[in-house]
Amino acid sequence: MIKPAPIRRSRPSEQGYTLIAVIILLALFTIALAVALPRMAKEIQRDRELETMQRGKQYIQGVRRYFRKFNAYPPNVDALVKPTNNIRFLRKKYKDPTTGKEDWKPVLYGQNKAPTAMGFFGQPLGRSTIAGVGPPGAPGTGLTQLQPPPDSNAPPPDTNNPPTPGSTIGTASGPTFGGAGIIGFSPNSPRKSIMVYKKKDHYNEWEFVYDPIADQMMQMGGSGLPPNPNPNPNPNPNPNPNPSPNPTPGPTQ
Fold first, then answer.
1. Model pTM above 0.70
2. Residue 30 region, left (φ>0) first, then alpha (ψ -120 to 50), else beta?
3. In the sheet that 105-108 helps form, which strands lie side by side, from edge to edge?
4. 228 lies in a domain?
5. Is there a domain that residue 14 lies in?
């Protein structure tokens, strides 16, 4: 008769070792998770900030198109989204990635907290619009009136009815607006950001605005100075670098 093999039972000491190993693995997993979670959160926040900048640039493009068309800033965001004379300047209202809502804060002319135009190395341009300064060309501002590119569809100006100084006039193909208008938009979240935009590290301080001076500065090379009319570095005006000597006159007969 075959006897069944005896069942080997684990000793209490072996069970204790297994429990200790499980506790150590759980502790290591918790430590690794605690290290990885902040990194993951920062990566997610950085991606949202990049998306915020991309959407902010879309708003800048919309304001730029509107300004070039009507020589005026839009009165509200609907003027960019809704078709005007079958022209849409912005595809849609974008959500603010920092809040998840369509609550971008409009920046009115003269109410911006940061320079509207930045030069090289993050330096604000001397003629950029700052809070409290009137429109370009206003007395006492030292700024010149900038004109957008001419519209080929616009009618010639009426010389009998000149525009009132200080008013903002649109073309006949679009509405006429007075007042300041919207120069851009800003996120609505007061949280601190990881990235820095125009030397600002809070979302509600980021201002995505359009200033025609920035376009003019880019055309001038970013320095604010007119281009050099004589790019030739050679100071010698003589086009012939090796002139031949004057011939000696011969004796007269």
1. no
2. alpha
3. 105-108, 182-186, 208-209
4. no
5. no
Structural domain that includes position 113: 44-148+168-219
Q: Is residue 11 part of a domain?
A: no
Count how many domains the chain has.
1
* Main-chain phi, psi angles of 213, to 5 degrees: -65, -35
- The reported pLDDT for the residue numbered 134 is 32
DSSP 159: S
Structure tokens at 228: 């050099």
Question: Considering the domain boundaries, does residue 194 fall inside one?
Answer: yes
The count of residues in the chain is 253
**CA–CA dist 68, 85 (Å, integer):** 15
| CA–CA gap between residue 53 and residue 96 (Å, rounded) | 10
Which of 98, 104, 126, 139 lies closest to 209 in space, CA to CA?
104
Mean pLDDT score across all residues of the chain:
72
Question: Which token pair is 52?
Answer: 């915020």
Using CA atoms, how far residue 164 sits from 135, 167, 180, in Å, is 14, 6, 15
